[in-house]
Specification:
This protein has about 80 residues and is α+β, with helices and mostly antiparallel strands. The chain is about 55% helix and about 15% strand. It is built from 4 helices and 2 strands; from the N terminus they run ααααββ. It has helices at about 5-15, 20-30, 30-40, 45-55; strands spanning about 65, 75. The chain has a two-stranded antiparallel ribbon. Helix 1 (about 5-15) packs parallel to helix 4 and helix 2 packs across helix 4. The longest helix has 15 residues, at about 5-15. It is globular and about 40 Å long.
Length: about 80
């Protein structure tokens, strides 16, 4: 996964909702440090953590996972 792209997306949605990193971390059952690392792209979030963050933000999304012929994992949010 592209950690920076995921992080920017999470940050965008969080800011649109007007929620701090600390608030979203509490709602998602994570630390503020985790949320910060995800948003900066320095830590790769597990799919289940992305799901928890989206749920805490009140965003409904379907995550599709697949792979390319070279074994690279690809994903898509619908």
């Amino acid at each position: 996964m592209d950690n920076v792209k995921i992080g920017k997306m999470l940050e965008k949605y969080r800011k649109e909702k007007g929620i701090s990193q600390a608030e979203i971390a509490k709602k998602a059952g994570m630390s503020q440090q985790q949320i910060s690392q995800y948003e900066k792209g320095t830590r790769e979030p597990k799919i289940e953590n992305i799901s928890k963050i989206f749920k805490a933000l009140g965003i409904s999304a379907t995550i599709s996972i697949g792979s390319k012929s070279n074994g690279e994992i690809i994903w898509q949010l619908d």
